[in-house]
Structures are given as C-alpha cells and as structure tokens.
Prior knowledge:
2 strands, 79 residues
Amino acid sequence: MSKKCTICREVIEGEYGHNAEPADTGRCCDDCNKEVVIPTRILNSHGGSDLQARQIRLERIMRVVDRNVKYKLNGQRKI
C-alpha cells in the first residue's frame, strides 16, 4: 500500500518519507520536506509566525495543483 504525503497528497516515493512536523502531522514526500518542512523549521527557529509557515505550505500545494492541471490539460500523465 503506497503512502500519501500529508501536505500535498502525492504518493511518497521510497519506503518511509519524512517527518512532516512542524508543517503537518504524519509523513511527507521529498519535495514537501525540501520546500515546506525544512523552511518551516528554519522559520520557527528564528521566531517566524504561524501565518508565515502556512504561507509556505500553501505555496507548495498551489505548485502541485498547478502542475497537475497542466498535465491534465495537455493530456499527459503525471511524472
């Protein structure tokens, strides 16, 4: 059974994924770890706000949605 990222809902490649804390609970994919979780951890360590952390997460989700819409419009399968 494949696991899905708790942030973008894409299938997690590999066996385990990454700890999604503090951006979300559960496990996340490599891309969300790089683009959301690590920046959120750095932001939090420097006194960043929850609003800034949510913005980082929202930007990642919008990139995933945008990519999937483009694939669908072009009749291509997602990579």
